[in-house]
Amino acid sequence: MLSRKPALLKNSPLNRSRLVVGSGRSLPEVLAAVADGLLDERSGGKRHRAVTVMYFMGAPTQEMAAERLELPFSTYRRHLVSGVERMIDLLWQQELRGTGLSTKADQKPS
């Protein structure tokens, strides 16, 4: 979806958020970083896979995304809904606190 419908992201109010404006990243980059942040959480790998296959890899349908992940549809939907809700929570927390995104890619060894 992120790559198939760039106009939706271009016109998104999130582009005016402190999170995007202050980070120097594009909205797709911010969303990808937040999705990657799921990996740091308990059961986050399941959420990350569901979100990534549906929105970043562009599965045409949710049924096909579940097939790609070799999951029953109901299990896939549970992971996807949980992942999207958690991403929303993380985005709000970062927007309200005014903190930047911190991902493993940003944390380089000294």
Give a quick summary of the entry:
About 60% of the residues lie in helices and about 0% in strands. It is mainly α.
Counting DSSP E segments of at least 2 residues, the number of strands comes to 0
Number of helices: 6
Structural class by sheet pairing and helices: mainly alpha
Q: Tell me what the CATH architecture is.
A: Orthogonal Bundle
Cα radius of gyration in angstroms = 14 Å
- CATH class term: Mainly Alpha
Report on this structure.
By secondary structure, this protein is mainly α. The protein has one domain: Arc Repressor Mutant, subunit A (Orthogonal Bundle), CATH 1.10.10. Helices cover 59% and strands 0% of the residues. The longest helix has 25 residues, at 73-97. It is globular, with a radius of gyration of 14 Å. The N and C termini lie far apart (36 Å). Residues 103-110 have low confidence and may be disordered.
